[in-house]
Amino acid sequence: MRIVYVSAVNEKCRVSGKRLIEVIDFGEQPLGNGFLKQEQFGEEYFFNMRVGFCEESGLLQLFDQPSPEAMFHEEYAFFSSTSTEMSKHFKSWAKSVATSSDTKNPLVIEIGCNDGIFLENFVNTNIRTIGIEPSENVANIAKSKGVMVENSFMNIPLAEALLSEHGSADYITAANVICHIPNILELAKCIDILLSDNGKFIFEEPYLGDIIQKCAYDQIYDEHVFLFSCISVKNLFNKLDLELIDAQPQVTHGGSMRYTIGRKGFNDVSDNAKKILENEYSMGLNKIESMLRLSENIKQSKNKLVEILENLKSGGSQVCGYAATSKSTTILNYCNIGPDLIQCIYDTTPLKQGKFSPGMHIPITDWKEFNLNMPDYTFLFAWNHLKEIMAKERAYTSQGRKWITHIPTVQIS
Question: What pLDDT does 277 receive?
Answer without folding.
Answer: 98
